[in-house]
């Protein structure tokens, strides 16, 4: 089995660790700020059910798309779940979604470019995508690089972390307008709550003095269509129709 086809399993256990909780707390707060004022009708979170990326968003139709049944600890319990084989073929019609959030999906995917092309396909003109990733240019990235040499990994070893400039280039090739990005989690890569909290003072210092060296980043892209001018909000009058995926009830699969 190709582990990169199931990022939920690869990342899930690590997200329950003190370092994972530290990352999730910052990402949840940042996503709440970024998605609160994005309007429309249809939004999708792809992967990472341990965080509710759309919690603050007010669109009437929201889904969680996964490549496996979410764990009991999933944060986004209020959203319907759509299970797919992988994320390179999304079960939504072209130009049907207003917002897609990809939390740590691309760096654990075997075909990240194809996933981005699918996201571009399903987004409406002026639709938005938000991408979360680990930052290679950080203390966490440096420790992970050292782990590759010694075999002692700090972050999940399956991840191929994509730098923010490279991610911006990928988005621009799809005619996405990209913002400057948001960075966070400046504490060194410690494994315990005690030491992570002890270095909490580095959050404000990092934001001021080395803002691009946070352990994680978020980028927001807006789909631009050349020659097209929108009048008013690009909203739909009816909910999006899903394709061929199999939606399941919002509960996890029980053994037996």
From TrEMBL:
Q: What is this protein called?
A: Methyltransferase type 11 domain-containing protein
Q: Which domain of life is it from?
A: Bacteria
* Record GO terms (molecular function): S-adenosylmethionine-dependent methyltransferase activity
Give start and end of each Methyltransferase type domain: 82-131
Short name of one Pfam family for this protein? Methyltransf_11
Which InterPro entries does the record match to this protein?
Methyltransf_11 (IPR013216), SAM-dependent_MTases_sf (IPR029063)
**Which species?**
Undibacterium terreum
């Amino acid at each position: 089995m190709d582990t990169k086809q199931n990022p939920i399993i690869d990342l899930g256990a690590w997200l329950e660790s003190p370092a994972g909780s530290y990352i999730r707390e910052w990402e949840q707060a940042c996503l709440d700020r970024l998605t609160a004022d994005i309007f429309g009708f249809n939004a999708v979170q792809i992967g990472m059910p341990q965080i509710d990326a759309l919690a603050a968003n007010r669109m009437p139709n929201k889904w969680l798309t996964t490549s496996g049944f979410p764990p009991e600890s999933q944060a986004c319990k209020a959203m319907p779940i759509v299970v797919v084989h992988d994320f390179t073929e999304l079960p939504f019609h072209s130009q049907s979604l207003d917002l897609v959030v990809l939390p740590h999906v691309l760096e654990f995917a075997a075909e990240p470019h194809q996933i981005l092309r699918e996201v571009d396909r399903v987004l409406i003109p002026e639709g938005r995508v938000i991408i979360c990733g680990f930052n290679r240019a950080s203390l966490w990235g440096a420790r992970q690089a050292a782990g590759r040499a010694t075999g002692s990994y700090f972050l999940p070893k399956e991840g191929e972390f994509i730098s923010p400039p490279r991610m911006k280039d990928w988005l621009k090739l799809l005619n996405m307008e990209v913002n400057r990005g948001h960075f966070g989690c400046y504490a060194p890569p410690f494994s315990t709550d005690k030491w992570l909290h002890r270095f909490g003072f580095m959050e404000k210092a990092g934001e001021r003095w080395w803002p691009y060296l946070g352990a994680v980043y978020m980028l927001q892209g807006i789909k631009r269509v050349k020659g097209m001018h929108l009048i008013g909000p690009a909203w739909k009058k009816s909910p999006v129709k899903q394709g061929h995926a199999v939606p399941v009830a919002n509960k996890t699969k029980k053994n037996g």
